Amino acid sequence: MKKTYLLPNFISMGNFLAGLYAIIFAIQGRILMAAYLILLAMLFDFVDGTVARLTKTESHFGMQLDSLCDIVSFGVAPMVLVYMLFMSQAEKFGWFSGVLFAACGVLRLARYNTQAKTDGKHYFDGLPIPAAAGFIVSYVIFCYTKSLSFLLALTPLLVMATALLMVCGIRYPSFRKLDFKRRRSLESMLLIILIAILATRDFHVFLVWCFTGYVLIGVISHVWKHPLWTKKKTEEVLASEEKP
């Protein structure tokens, strides 16, 4: 009989409950509270995997449970949030972008589960669904708190673009191999302190820039490594070497 481990799975259920309450609050029109609960679900999602790796309690059951919870918290909850946010303004557009996001999220998780044993541990194949949800939620929070209604109107377009990034072949860096036991250099500690200061000064700006940076880093890296771009750079180098 295969073992299941209580602690990481219990934390995964925290992810599920946070996502469930996010859906409830979104339906009630409490958009900011729903967005913060999705971020809380992200925290649970990060902690359960970290705890499982540190305590060596990873299991196939835990991986499947984590994916099912992710569908609710990072697929359905953002879909409901976007739909409720734009229901009175552009009902069909908000509905379509939200459904597309949830559908691509499910496909992304299914692909991840089938490739879990063969995928490298240094990258994700496609934008991870928690990062995709985090990007949308942080953008909504930023626009809400700064009263930027003209930027908030762009949310459905960003939702559709993010949905496509989840199912494309762009590689994104993975932080699953972070070693919390290893000693850090002074430069690393100073960087952590700097990040903490920036986060406390304006948390909403810090949050949206972090997620935006992660979304863009995969796109920029993919374009930089594209054969056409690589060929162009090679031709430029050869041309410069041929000059007297």
Describe this structure as you would to a colleague.
With 244 residues, the protein is mainly alpha-helical. It has a single domain (6-242), classed as Up-down Bundle (Four Helix Bundle (Hemerythrin (Met), subunit A)), CATH 1.20.120. It contains 10 helices and 2 strands, in the order ααααβαααβααα. The chain has helices spanning 6-27, 31-54, 60-85, 91-114, 129-145, 149-152, 155-167, 186-201, 203-224, 227-242, and strands at residues 123-125, 171-173. A two-stranded antiparallel ribbon has the order 1-2. α2 (31-54) packs antiparallel against α5, α3 (60-85) packs parallel to α5 and α4 (91-114) packs parallel to α7. It starts with 5 loop residues before the first helix and ends with a helix. Mean pLDDT is 80; it is low at 235-239.
The parts where pLDDT drops under 50 for at least 5 residues are 235-239
The major beta sheet can be summarized as: 2 strands, antiparallel
CATH homologous superfamily name? CDP-alcohol phosphotransferase transmembrane (TM) domain
CATH topology: Four Helix Bundle (Hemerythrin (Met), subunit A)
Domain count: 1
Shape: globular
Structural class: mainly alpha
Taking all residues together, what is the mean pLDDT?
80
Strand content: under 5%
Number of helices: 10
Give me the Rg, rounded: 20 Å
What's the β-strand tally? 2
Supply the CATH class: Mainly Alpha
- The residue fraction in helices comes out at over 70%
For the largest sheet, list the strands in their spatial order. Answer: 1-2
User: Would you identify the CATH architecture?
Assistant: Up-down Bundle
The succession of helices and strands, N to C, reads: HHHHEHHHEHHH
Distance between the termini: 73 Å
